[in-house]
Amino acid sequence: MNYLDFEKPLADIEGKAEELRAMAAGNDDVDIEAEAAALDRKAADMLVDLYKSLTPWRKCKVARHPDRPHCKDYIEHLFTDYMPLAGDRGFADDHAVMGGLARFNDQPVVIIGHEKGHDTKTRLDRNFGMARPEGYRKAVRLMDMADRFNLPVITLVDTPGAYPGKGAEERGQSEAIARSTEKCLQIGVPLITVIIGEGGSGGAVAFATANRVAMLEHSVYSVISPEGCASILWKDAEKTREAAEALRLTAENLYQLKVVDKIVPEPLGGAHRDPAAAKEAVRTCIADMLASMRNVSRDELVRNRRAKFLAMGSTGLAA
Amino acid sequence: MAISPRDRFLTLFDGGIFTEVKVPQPLEDPLKFRDQKRYPDRMKAAQKNTGESEAMLVAEGDIYRTPIVAAAQDFSFMGGSMGMFVGNAFVAAAERAVELGRPLVVFSAAGGARMQEGILSLMQMPRTTVAIQMLREAGLPYVVVLTHPTTGGVTASYAMLGDIQIAEPQALICFAGPRVIEQTIREKLPEGFQRAEYLLDHGMLDRVTDRRALKEELAHLLCMLMGRTPPVKGDLAAPAKS
């Protein structure tokens, strides 16, 4: 288990309980087990306490937790017959973006998502979930295909942002993002998004301009990272806590602002503590959102999506 | 050299005559954003500095007797940043263009999205894209003139979706700024990287055009796209006011 810095007291207690049990291993020491069990209870209470009201900056940390289920995990568990489809037909296949055909509850769908990777090798291969233009162009191609064959599109968003690299700029990162957002607004099929971790700025919008947008409870979605915002507005990269607060990037805030339609509750202690439960919650959410659009015509889907985004920003936070 | 939207319109429109298109006022400080200063205080300072109420000006008028709607972004107003107001201005411009059956010309200049409006500024990316789709469906040209600098969420939405993409010479046009990229890849970027001429070379623009030639060029392009006879060039008397 990887502990976050604010979970350190919890790590200490859980570590102690584990140590006690290791010491007692082999003999049935009742006292030691009782002590360990007491520590377990203390840890459980502490976990409830810690996660009851996570600050926005702590949510950022949970959203970026290395053990948090990623796009690939959701694809493997929620979909069957996943057929990855690669390439933008122009330059390359971007491994930061997974995409292809799959079945969700037997229904064929197109799935697109950012994948961050889970260890050094896969993180490098996936570029930490930061897509290059080819990733967005692959997404455009897949959305076009979904539109032609009348398949719903499900996008899973988890990116620190689009990759700020030389080649990415050279090959038109801005244009690629803009076209992907534009494509989202054009397709006559249901488009649903689940923000499963980080919704990083334009790199997220390009996939998240959807009929329905859901967000995992401890995910974040923001115009800029707290680090970036702190260094620009506070001129102090350490002011991430303040920036995270000011940006209103939590699921709860975004629901109030009508930017997200649904908050998917996470298991106690975050999705990484019980990935199976998190995945099931996402399954239910996707099924509900798909069902809600079952009998909506192609024209209406496009119209509704546009009307929704045209109205964005007319609701602020209550003072 | 930077030029304010108002000055640009004075030189762009025939006889310097144009009518401002009213932009609906958005919610003030929707997130109650506070960094080292309160957002409303930053706004007041910008308003005092520029004499404008916000970072985009929308107008209708003629260029060489071709009626158009134009919107121009003001980099000197909080870095031209795109928040709810700029979104409203862009949507109002597109709606007015559709209503009048005119092309829309947008002069972009922005550091990106306005952080003080958080996610709501980010949502102006899809929102302005919806407005562009209104123009497309009405069969009206949408021309972007990218001016120095155009970056971030603005480049990654309406500034890159023109039917025709023109940039002013030497304009910095990018998604991620050079400093961010240098920090990421830890190497110095080549001379001219992300400048208009570089983007033209890399296929991201149709043309790079000096400001002095822009008016004539726009008039020609728009007349052709609209199937009109060629524009009447030269110094014209201001059209009679009705």
Structure description:
The complex is a heterodimer of chains A (319) and B (242). With 319 residues, chain A is of the alpha/beta class. In chain A, 50% of the residues lie in helices and 15% in strands. In chain A, strands 1, 2, 3, 4, 5, 6, 7 and 8 form an 8-stranded mixed β-sheet that branches. The radius of gyration of chain A is 21 Å and the shape is globular. With 242 residues, chain B is an alpha/beta fold. Chain B has one domain (5-225): 2-enoyl-CoA Hydratase, Chain A, domain 1, CATH 3.90.226. In chain B, strand 2 (56-63) and strand 3 form a beta hairpin. The mean pLDDT of chain B is 94. Classes of the chains: A alpha/beta (319), B alpha/beta (242).
Q: Tell me the distance between the termini of chain A.
A: 40 Å
End-to-end separation of chain B in angstroms reads 35 Å
Order of helices and strands of chain B: HEHEEHEHHEHEHHEH
Order of helices and strands of chain A: HHHHEEEHHEHHEHEEHHHEHH
Number of strands of chain B: 7
Give average pLDDT of chain B, whole number: 94
| Spatial order of strands in the largest sheet of chain B | 1-2-3-4-5-6-7
Strand content of chain A: 15-25%
The number of distinct helices of chain B, counting runs of at least 4 residues, comes to 9
Outline the fold blueprint.
The complex is a heterodimer of chains A (319) and B (242).
Chain A: H1 8-24, H2 30-52, H3 56-63, H4 71-78, E1 80-84, E2 97-104, E3 107-114, H5 120-125, H6 133-148, E4 153-159, H7 166-170, H8 173-186, E5 191-200, H9 201-208, E6 212-216, E7 220-222, H10 226-234, H11 240-247, H12 251-256, E8 262-264, H13 275-291, H14 298-310
Parallel strand pairs in A: 3-4, 4-5, 5-6, 5-7, 6-8
Antiparallel strand pairs in A: 1-2, 2-3
Chain B: H1 5-12, E1 18-20, H2 39-50, E2 56-63, E3 66-73, H3 84-100, E4 104-110, H4 118-122, H5 124-137, E5 142-150, H6 152-155, E6 164-167, H7 178-185, H8 196-201, E7 207-208, H9 211-225
Parallel strand pairs in B: 3-4, 4-5, 5-6, 6-7
Antiparallel strand pairs in B: 1-2, 2-3
Helix pairs in contact in B: 3-5
